[in-house]
Amino acid sequence: MSMQEDKQVILQGLYELAARLLPVMDKQQMIYDLGQPGVSVDLFNGKAGVILFYLRLAEYDPAYLQVALSAADVLLSHPAILQQQYFTLYTGATGLLYLCIVLYEATAYEQYLERAHELAAAFEYGILNQVIQDDLISGHAGNLLVLTRLYSYKRKAGLLSLIQRLADRLVAHARIASQGLRWGHLKRSYDCLTGMSHGASGIGHALLQVSAYFGDEELLSLALQAWAYEMTYYDPDRRNWLDLRLTSTHLQEADVVHWRLEDFRKYISDVNAWAHGAAGAGLARLHAWKVTGDPNFAEECEQAITRCLDDLVTLKRGDFTLCSGYAGVAMFVLEAATSLNRPSLREAAQQLAVNAIKYYGEHRTYNSYISNADSDPGLFSGLAGVGYLFASVLLPDRREHITAPLIGIQRNDQPLYAPGELRRRLFDRYYARTLAKLVDRSLKIDMDIHSLEQLLKTLGGEDDTFTYEYSLTQVWKTHRGSWAYTQRAMILAGINDQLRRETDIVLLDTVFEIVQGVEVCTTAQPMHPVGEEDKADTEGYYYIHYAHPQGVNTFPVSRFTVVLLTAIGYSLPLGQLVRDMLHPKTDVSIALLQQIVLAQIRRLLQEGFITKQ
């Protein structure tokens, strides 16, 4: 078919979806639905999302604007919207703020901004106290973005205070990684997630938009660190970012104990969608490149485009939804077409829309993975999202979509943070003692924490304080989140309890290993309050840093414990370690030394610091 014929096919499909969804927008139906327990009013699969589809459709066909406005007026005035359980951008109540903003942009009616401020005040307690995650779709990052966008139109001191508190919360939740910073330590995942919905791309995007509005270099530095972390899980062979979610319920015990990425690859899918994968990660980098001009973002975006174009041709999955399907992939390609001025990308998005309609003609659904998908009106989960794509590919170039909300107004306020303020907070979190000893603390201002770490090595790499804090920070860098250590603790409890009950002969024949997340450290000076019972060994003071579900702890140990743990690192049977490595350094009998070592081994097993190899 010609391009014009393709557009006619898409237009017909768009109007068919609009007709199918009209009953959802009916005033009486809306009132009835809002009176039912558990009714969804959010953007993801609720009333607000369907209204957003009609607002997008109205940009193409203004006759539908009144449909959206009538439904929105019923929704926004209904008392049910004040009885919310979740207070997040896509999956909760704050999506209503986004809807109000888009309604204002479509009509210039101030009443929608006023209603948004009223709802923000009503939802403030929930926003501050009932949101656990940090991500874009269901966490603090999404709320920070939508509240700042609202503030950009109508500045109120109370709203600015809420924005500041959310920004502070994201700063407090940031954790150092081997590269960059990460958020989201409570999810069932190998590590903090990548991607737009629940991962680093979405958090980075929100921080980028807010930093651009406030002209805040500190928030921009956090956004860049989020994407730096995400690149540690980029797979160049697949041109994709690893989906680190662990959806399998049958993880092997050995994999949980060792928690190595190479072991978990068998559980990880190569999904590419808006929520997880190259489409969402590429979308975030597209906007990052536009704001920063960093050529690395341009290259990463190009890799994402290549992957997405391949997927839009092969169409290996029967899912055309906005969240997990090809509609989300096409939305990224469409936005790239506008930003990069590449008409061929728009054509690829239009062809996907045509293929979606063909698929529906053959299968009577836009999502074969869910049995009742054809009755789901949701924006991200169902029909409204497919329609949103159809309308978008028919419209002239547009730079803002629900898949990547923007703050379009130029900077109009003071930065939230002074230059260097957030970086100082992060530095002090991991290297407070070391920095306190430096005369010139201004060296911290213009670098990220990893650059600071390298500088501190050159300034005082042999210093006890730096040695201690550096060792502790290495454990933080390898911390994989709460779920990892909760699961491992349960498995190790069973394995190690059985080992502790074994005979001495069995234990002496066993090869042990130090579990991931345990680090030993030696200093000449004490790093903890020293009591009368804490006499320094001739070699110094000894510590174990260990990761657990809530974070990292440290406690002092004896020199003998450190010597034993060091010997365990040689991966030899315990009896051989005692005979060949430990006994030559002592003046006690080998029988007595074995008993001392066995007692220590059983204690280390009980603490979960070691296990059998």
UniProtKB/TrEMBL annotation:
Protein name stated in the entry: Lanthionine synthetase
GO molecular function: metal ion binding
Entry keyword annotation includes Zinc: yes
Entry annotated with the keyword Transmembrane: no
Gene Ontology biological-process annotations: carbohydrate metabolic process; peptide modification
Cellular component GO terms, alphabetical: plasma membrane
Pfam family, one: LANC_like
Organism: Chitinophaga agri
Binding site for Zn(2+): 323
PANTHER family: LANC-LIKE PROTEIN (PTHR12736), LANC-LIKE PROTEIN 2 (PTHR12736:SF21)
Domain of life, source organism: Bacteria
SUPFAM superfamilies cross-referenced by the UniProt entry: LanC-like
InterPro entries: 6hp_glycosidase-like_sf, LANC-like
Keywords, ordered alphabetically: Metal-binding, Zinc
